[in-house]
Amino acid sequence: MAAPPVPSPAVLAKREVLQLVEAYCAAYEKRNLQSMRNVFRKGDLTAIPKLLRDEQELRCAATPPEFEALNPNVPGSARLHFTMTHVASRKSQPDTTVRRIVMEVSRPEFASPWLIDHITLADSSPR
């Protein structure tokens, strides 16, 4: 019996980046600053504590990402787009926003995790 085929580096990289998107969404929902820091390589996260403090509940759902660019080799990098539905419950009423996210991620070597380098909101539309 033949062994199952080994996934290509691109397939493995896409799986790992998808896990990063899921971790980003989970960190958002947990409202935990340390969880947010764990998915970002660097950057100014000073707005995050205010966001976490102002919202009573955050829910996030992301569509499967579309890869604009992917380099699964070392150093690895990717630029992807996905839609995130963000539901924030405030004291007054829930607010649902659908955002198109552009995320740039990288990893310095195969053993390193993929981390977020930069996020841009391509558009934002309340529902």
Descriptive labels:
127 residues, alpha+beta, five-stranded antiparallel beta sheet, Nuclear Transport Factor 2, Chain: A
Task: Provide structural commentary.
The structure is a single chain. The protein has 127 residues and is an alpha+beta fold. The protein has a single domain, classed as Nuclear Transport Factor 2, Chain: A. It has helices at residues 9-30, 33-39, 47-54; strands at 57-62, 66-71, 76-89, 94-107, 115-126. Strands 1, 2, 3, 4 and 5 form a 5-stranded antiparallel sheet that branches. Helix 1 (9-30) runs antiparallel to helix 2. The termini are far apart. The mean pLDDT is 84.
> H/E order of the elements?
HHHEEEEE
Taken together, the total number of domains comes to: 1
- By oligomeric state, this entry counts as single chain
So what's the overall shape? elongated
Extended strand count: 5
> Helix fraction?
25-40%
Mean pLDDT score, rounded? 84
Q: What's the CATH class, please?
A: Alpha Beta
Radius of gyration: 16 Å
CATH architecture: Roll
The assigned structural class equals alpha+beta
What is the fold named in CATH at topology level? Nuclear Transport Factor 2, Chain: A
